[in-house]
Amino acid sequence: MSAGILGMGKFVPERVVTNIDLEKVMDTSDEWIRTRTGIEERRIADDNTNTSDIAFAAAEQAIKNAGLTAKDIDLILVATVTPDHPFPSVACMLQDKLGARHIPAMDISAACSGFIYGMVTAKQFIDNRTFQHVLVVGVEKLSKITDWDDRGTAVLFGDAAAAAVMGQVSDGKGILSFELGADGSGGKYLYQDDRFIKMNGREVFKFAVRQMGESAVNVVEKAGLKKEDIDYLIPHQANIRIMEASRERLEIPEDKMIKTIQKYGNTSASSIPLALIDAVEEGQIKDGDLLVMVGFGGGLTWGALTLKW
Ligand code: ACO
Questions:
Q1: What is the C-alpha separation between 97 and 7, in angstroms, rounded?
Q2: Contact call for residues 3 and 169 (beta carbons, < 8 A)
Q3: Which of 112, 117, 95 is nearest to 104 (CA)?
Q4: DSSP for 199-249, written as a single string
Q5: What does the pLDDT look like over 159-190, one tens digit per residue?
Q6: What is the set of active-site residues?
Q7: Using CB atoms within 10 A of its CB, is residue 35 exposed (0-12), middle (13-18) or buried (19+)?
Q8: What protein family does this chain belong to (predicted)?
Q9: Given this model, what pLDDT does residue 1 score?
């Protein structure tokens, strides 16, 4: 028995903002955004919808899809850098909204690596039998910390939530290996000031290309697998060129990399689980497939794991 995913859920806001829409409000072009990032459109939540609201929608669905009720959840972990408030945490707000028991609940701040950090944390409690069911949510309302006057960042981000209920799974499924890391000296390249996201795009790009490839290869080796055993790569959806670099390091064909960046942009902590859900729903990822998930983010942080679906 190993720790794996029992059910998943997602929520993306209805409002679609295309590159053409952005052309009208800032000095950018659809062509620039597509060729430099791979993004075509993103979802933006309305002013009355906050992070905990979209987290709730995804979490409810994940619990239902796991065949459970909120009362069955033993721990809530929410990966986000856009909480409703510094405190209470989104996890505590979610516990209340879901009507869960008075179980532990906390947020994880690891930016775009947050969901991998959450899954690995959940695994520890599941493996040592402390908890049976852990709800892990990746959620961001990045639009509220986006500087719409900064074309270098505004075109990149979107809002979304994706959730997984984790617990014991059998038949060799679940998490097979993982790697987590952080380099605080790179914090200056990607951070939030009093209000907005600030980014040195080139430095983040260089770090991401190196780290994503390295971590993806490391977790494959740690699991005792070979690159050719991997059915799908699910990289953090930050920039198609960064994603491609990690795919090339893993030496897997183009159609084996899950790609949703064109429709959602970079949704930070929700990007990897959102891509996983879409690929499962579309019948691309099937029972027993071997997956590599790998992400990087502000901190700087990184995380990767192999998972048998
Ligand atoms: N539209 C048009 N032109 C633009 C835009 C835009 N939206 N943004 C920047 N430019 C211009 C720049 O001003 C610059 O013009 P100049 O040459 O006249 O000075 C030119 O395009 C090139 O800019 P660069 O920054 O060098 O472009 P680059 O190829 O590096 O692409 C990008 C920029 C897409 C941001 C890239 O660096 C990147 O993807 N970096 C990683 C970003 C990332 O993944 N961040 C993760 C954040 S996730 C998290 O943890 C929250």
A1: 19
A2: yes
A3: 95
A4: E-HHHHHHHHHHHHHHHHHHHHHHTT--GGG--EEEE-SS-HHHHHHHHHH
A5: 999 999 999 999 999 999 999 999 999 999 99
A6: 112, 236, 266
A7: exposed
A8: Belongs to the thiolase-like superfamily. FabH family.
A9: 83
CA 57 to chain centre: 16
CA atoms within a 13 Å half-sphere pointing along the CA-CB vector of 159: 26
> How is the chain split among helix, strand and coil, in percent rounded to 5?
40, 25, 30
What whole-number distance in Å separates Cα of residue 83 and Cα of residue 80?
6
Backbone angles phi, psi at 68, to 5 degrees: -125, 175
Instruction: Please tell me if the CB atom of residue 144 comes closer than 6 angstroms to any atom of ligand 1.
Output: no
pLDDT digits (tens, 9 = 90+) for 290-308: 999 999 999 999 999 999 9
- Total residue length of the chain: 309
Atom 3 in ligand 1: residue holding the nearest Cα: 28
Q: Whose CA is nearest to atom 36 of ligand 1?
A: 201
Ligand 1 atom 46: the closest Cα is on which residue? 238
Beta strands in the chain (DSSP E): 2-11, 16-18, 41-43, 75-79, 105-108, 134-141, 159-169, 174-182, 190-192, 197-199, 232-235, 290-297, 301-308
Tokens of 138: 């990746």
Tokens of 41: 């459109």
- Ligand 1 midpoint to CA 201 (Å): 5
pTM above 0.90, yes or no: yes
- 288 phi, psi to nearest 5 deg: 85, -5
